[in-house]
From TrEMBL:
Top-rank taxon: Bacteria
Secretion signal span: 1-23
GO CC aspect terms: periplasmic space
Subcellular location, principal: periplasm
Official protein name in the record: C4-dicarboxylate ABC transporter substrate-binding protein
InterPro entries: DctP_fam, TRAP_DctP_sf
Pfam annotation, one family: DctP
Amino acid sequence: MKTVSILKSTVVALVTMSAAAAAESYNANHFFAERHSMVRGPYVEFAKKVAEETDGAIEFNVFSAGSLLPPASSLQGVRDGVAQVTYHAGTYTPSELPIANLIGDMAFYNTDPLVMAFASTEFGLTNPEQQAEWKTNGVVYGGGYSTSEYFMQCNTPIRTLEDIKGKRLRMAGGAWSRFAEHVGAVPVSIPSSEMYTGLDAGSLDCAVAAADALDSFSLKDVVTDMNTLPIGNYYAGFEWGYNVPFWQSITPENRRVLFNQMAYYLGEHRIEFDKDVEKAVQSAKDGGMTVVDPDDTLKNALAEFVAADEATLVANAKERGVEDPEVILTSFKALIDKWDALLAQVDTADVEALAELARTEIYDKIDETTYGVN
């Protein structure tokens, strides 16, 4: 009888311990493939770290390549609880996120991806108007990102301004499409997943995207020429946006875990993205792709566009109901300049140094007991 009692007690203890350690399962959504730098670190590794650091209280099941939500539905999907955290490309929802798109269209002000990733993250977490926009859309903003610089990856040579006229360029919408029109090209707004088909079928002359696409979207098989004119970089929306009921249901201690891990992968992602670009470009060059620098006609056309487009940004934002977009842009520019200076003082190839900077300058200043709750 004593042995039976001991066994019963042991079983009860084990069941209790197992239940306590069992992770709550949640959905994490990204529309890029798992091998992409925006997924493999900030989502796949991130999910493992969060499960470890929360002692199994939070376990994310990562859905990639649009297997849970298509790109245009990610904002609604996280709001409705289909996913508890998601990536969202802001240009898919310009009416719902006019402020996020306003700052996202500032991609030509500073084309350093690391600067823009950190500046957009601080803006998204701290700017009152932007915070109100997230709240209206039922999302708790967690952190941002930036692609590497966008280049023209083409199946035809583009050397001069004259060469680009009439060419069909896949663009990310917004300022990129306006730049295409400015130089006499034809902007084509399609998802990145359709770039290969467009170039292969001849419905596109160039895909304007980060050059990791040569590998991650297999564009090296259909691209013969790449022009390194820096056509901005993409950071509109968010890398991590959380469902409100989920965020409010977890403990402040676990919100701090998420903050710390986002700080780490904000920097890790940028380093890995640039490494992927370097490897993809070298592989494509080895396969015969030609890489050329822009001539003065293209550089001058880009400079003219950047100088003129801010008025368009402001006008578009006002049409979408944004009050005082000039004030918002001034605030965002100040953050860009701040991060340009801060990042010049650290080793930008050191993930830990970048993570520490993100924590001390951004995430440690946010109160995990109130952020996203009040």
